[in-house]
Each structure stands twice: as C-alpha cells, then as structure tokens.
Amino acid sequence: MSVNIQLDRPHDLYKNLEFITGKAILTIFNNETISAIVVKLEGESKTRLAVSQLPPQEQLPQALGPRGRHYAELEVHKLLYKVATVFPAENLQRATPETPSYTLPAGQYEYPFRFKIPLNNDCHKNSQYTNPNNLTGLLGEIARATNRHVKQTLPPSLGGLPGQAEIRYYVKVTVQRPAFYKENFRAITTFNFIPIEPPRGPENRRESYARRQHQFAPKVDAPSQPSLFSRPPATRPGTSVIPPNIRLDSRLPDPAIVNCNEPLPLRVLITKLNDSPATIYLQMLNIELIGYTHIRAHQLQSTDAASWVVMSASNLRMALGHNVGRGRDMEVDASLWSRIPLPNTVAPSFETCNLTRTYALDIKVGLSYGSADNIHPELTIQTLHMPPQHQPPPSTLAPTSGPSQPFHPPQKPPAQSGQLYAPPHEDLPPSYEDAVGIDTGPVDGLMRDYPPQPQQTSNPRGDGKGPGETDERLFPDSDRFR
User: Fold this and answer.
1) What pLDDT was estimated at residue 101?
2) How many angstroms separate the CA atoms of 153 and 352, rounded?
3) Cα–Cα distance measured from residue 390 to residue 358, given in angstroms and rounded to the nearest whole number
4) For residue 301, what are the β-bridge partners?
C-alpha cells in the first residue's frame, strides 16, 4: 500500500480566502482493510532555543535550567488545523458502527479534497492538537504546552533559520487501519503561503523621515617648516571657504511601507543651513534592508538579524547643485536606486505567538564639499535609520482589526464545598473578519513572486510520492517484505 497527495496547483502561492484543492491517491497492491482516510490542512510555527545559542548577557541564571548551558526549550503552535474525512462518505459513516472497517481490493483510488484558508490563526483553539511528544534532536526535547497566544493574520511561510525557527503549511493524508498491530499510512506535502495585505488609507502627501545634521570642519593647512632661504608665503585674504552646515533627510511615504519586487519609494534630501558657497558632493551611497526575527521559546528569547543590500556605490563625485542658497533642498538623484527592486526572498512583516519579523532601512550617505577643481578631503558618512513595514501583495480586504492581544484561556476556579463547577464555553464567538471571511471569495490582486520553501526530495522507493511528500510511518520500508 502507498498513499500520496497531488495538489491542483503544486507550485503556486496560496493566500487567505483561497481554496486549496487536490486529491489523495491510494494505491493498494493486495486486499487491505482500512477504517477511514482523513485529510488535514495544517500550519505550525515551531521555535527552539538553547541557552548556549544566546548571547552571554541573555543567559540569565534563572533561564539556565537543571542542565546549565545545555538547556533548551521547544515551543510549537498549531496556527491552522482543518480536518476532512474523504472516506467513507457521510451517508456511509452514519450507517456504520463506531469502529467500521472496509476491505478494498487491489487497485488505485482517488479521493478529492478542498479546504478554504482562513484569515486569522486559531492556535488557542488548536492547542489540543499539538503533539505533546514532539521531540527534536538526540536529547529528546519535549514541546511543553503554552498559554500565550496571539490572534493575528496567518503569518507567511518562513525558513532560513534551521534549528531555531520555522513556519510551514502542509496537507497531510492519513490512512487509518483498524488492526492495532498495523500502522497507519501517512503522506505530507507542503505548500507556500503568503498573507494578503491590509488595505491602505487614501493617498496623502505626508512623509515619514529620518534626519541627521552635520557641520563640516574648516580646512586647516599644515604649517611648513621655515628655512634660512625660504620666504614666508603671501597671505591672500578671502581665499578660505566657509564650511557648510547641512541637514540630511531620508523620506518614505507615510505610512512607511515597502514591497518586494518593487523599488524603494525613497527620497534623500540635503539642505544647507548656513551661507556657505561651497558645493556639496555625494561620494558614496549604501542602502541596506535589515530584517529582525524575534524568536521566543517559552522563557528564552533571541533576535536573529539578516540583511539585504539594495544598492552600494562609491567614488561618485556627484555635485548636488551649484550656488545653492541657504534653506533650499538638494535631492539626490533617485535613479541610483529606483531601477533596483527589493529581492523576492524577503518575507512580509508579521507577528505570531512565538515569532515576530520586523524591518529597518539603513541608508549610509558619504558627503564632502569644495569646488570642481578642489574638493575638500574630509569625507563624512552619515547613517539614517528608518523602520519601514514590509508588506505582502496589496488587496482590498483587511485581515485584522486593532492591535493583537495575548490570549489566556480561562482558569478553573478553586472548588468549593456544596457547589458544582461548570467549565467555561471553549468556543469563543468568531471575530468580524472570520465571520465575513466565511462567505468571502478569494481576493483578486497583484500577486508578487515569493520563492517556495525548500522541498524534500522524492521518495527513492518509487511508490509515487512527488517532491515534498514524505512517509511518516514508524517503519516506512515495511511493505518491502509483503
């Protein structure tokens, strides 16, 4: 027996409110007795931190644990969990006993499935589906339960942090067999997910900015050593140039949002604050996008930084206007970066229970002053730091409303004599976005490229499993001996 999954769109990006469809293909070589075929749509956020991986200042004594620097924590959140039974059919389920069994002859069977991806995560409802025996590594680390949940838009698929953090979405098929001595057959295929962007407000002329001010130092001539036959140089009044005092601005539209596969909507302005006649020269420019991934595994926390160089240029000797007066803005030519899109490997900003991704834009500008035939050797490099939001493709639907709030399940009150305790209702009413999203179809909007996560290699046994599909049985090669 073998089972695999075939998605109708195996290499496409999926987003909120879209349907993911496909079929489970069951191949039976001999007569087999099964009880059910269950298809699950799941998404999980997994983090693991060890004390030895943290900086020394973060290795608090209370966080060392009983094993000292070898202590590690594993935290798993089930962001998405949907279940559909594709075999037997609903009418057959109602007509059969509680533990049915069906004998299927040899052959190939196909069972279609269809799921709708919601807007928000529901890990506070799906915490009971998290495997408490989720082990990792050779030390047998157990993922402890947690009560801290954040209800937010489903985060994007995330990789690139092996052994520390991962967000993945997948479809899993389980072939259940009634005999306790026969293991169930499973197959998993992953897909790439990116959330839709919240709607933006009406266009405006506001700009968010970062600002620095700098005063150039005056030119100092090195005194020459006097000699017996030398004559002191004649001083010519009016040859010294007043060093300029400048203000440097970097500006983005407000709110500061950037998108992958698009150039930065950036403006760099330089303003003279005094009456210096000197010309300002742009010598170098470096623009870098820095992503910060904040990782939390119970009481352990860490931040991982990654950077993407948008552009870097030096030895420009670009004059920024001639005889520009005081208080007038000089704008750096935007063609230096306007033809360079952001890389498509950058995940959108997001926040979930144990992972958060934020971004910062670092702009380094190298300036000097002087004239065309005499540029002052002083080079000042000013760094401007802006915290923009990196958003997924735009749409017309808001996935969330209001800031996220930690969710704490209700606690059982202490028992009192003569009173009965009624447990609280666990199913909270759906939010406005969830209620509207039930009847809302997929959002048609610009979909940018977002490279998929690394797929697993196909099964070398040749049992029909494609890329990204794995067999999770305890003894995956057991059918060789049938």
Assistant:
1) 87
2) 8
3) 8
4) 296
